[in-house]
Every structure is written in structure tokens, then in C-alpha cells.
């Protein structure tokens, strides 16, 4: 549910909603929601001084039962 809510919010912010990919992962440190966007939309999702990203993290953590980490990365970055 958290990934879907974050996906909806991010798609409303960006110019290329078809390039938005939200994945939820579990590791030993807890849950991570990873948001991948088009490189041109990265600044729009992060916002000035990180305000938009911080607001998205606040909304997700308000919906979550426990602390969830939200990472925003562009589509050019490979892991």
C-alpha cells in the first residue's frame, strides 16, 4: 500500500510519469521504498533543499506502521 501511495504522489509531480518506478524492498535494517525517476524529473522530486523529498518521506512514514526509508534515484544510476 505504501509503494502505491508514493507512486501516485510522485507521478503527480513529474513531467514523465511513465518513467516512475517505485519498488519496496526488505533488508535486515528494515523496509526501503526506492523511487526511480527520469533524470530531468529528479530535481522536481527532490525539490528545493530537499523539501519535496522530505514531505514525501513524511507522508509515507505517517501511513506506515513502522519506520520506512525512502530513497529517490534517477533512472541513469545503476546498481
The biggest sheet, with number of strands, parallel, antiparallel or mixed sense and barrel status, is: 3 strands, mixed
Radius of gyration: 12 Å
| Class from secondary-structure proportions | alpha+beta
Question: Total number of β-strand segments?
Answer: 3
What assembly state would you assign to the polypeptide chains in this entry? single chain
Count of helix runs: 3
- Write the H/E string, N to C: HEEHHE
How would you characterize the overall build of this protein?
This protein has 79 residues and is α+β, with helices and mostly antiparallel strands. It is built from three helices and three strands. It has helices at residues 2-13, 42-46, 51-63, and strands at residues 21-27, 30-37, 68-74. Strands 1-2-3 form a three-stranded mixed sheet. A hairpin with a 2-residue loop joins strand 1 and strand 2 (30-37). The relative contact order is 0.24.
What is shown here, in short?
With 79 residues, this protein is of the alpha+beta class.
How is the topology of this model organized?
Blueprint: H1 2-13, E1 21-27, E2 30-37, H2 42-46, H3 51-63, E3 68-74
Parallel strand pairs: 2-3
Antiparallel strand pairs: 1-2
Descriptive key words:
globular, three-stranded mixed sheet, 38% helix, 28% strand, 3 helices, alpha+beta, single chain, 79 residues, 3 strands
Amino acid at each position: 500500500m505504501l509503494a502505491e501511495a508514493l507512486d501516485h504522489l510522485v507521478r503527480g509531480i513529474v513531467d514523465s510519469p511513465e518513467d516512475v518506478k517505485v519498488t519496496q524492498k526488505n533488508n535486515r535494517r528494515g523496509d526501503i521504498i526506492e523511487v526511480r525517476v527520469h533524470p530531468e524529473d529528479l530535481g522536481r522530486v527532490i525539490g528545493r533543499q530537499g523539501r519535496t523529498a522530505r514531505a514525501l518521506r513524511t507522508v509515507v512514514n505517517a501511513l506506515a506502521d513502522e519506520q520506512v526509508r525512502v530513497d529517490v534515484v534517477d533512472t541513469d544510476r545503476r546498481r
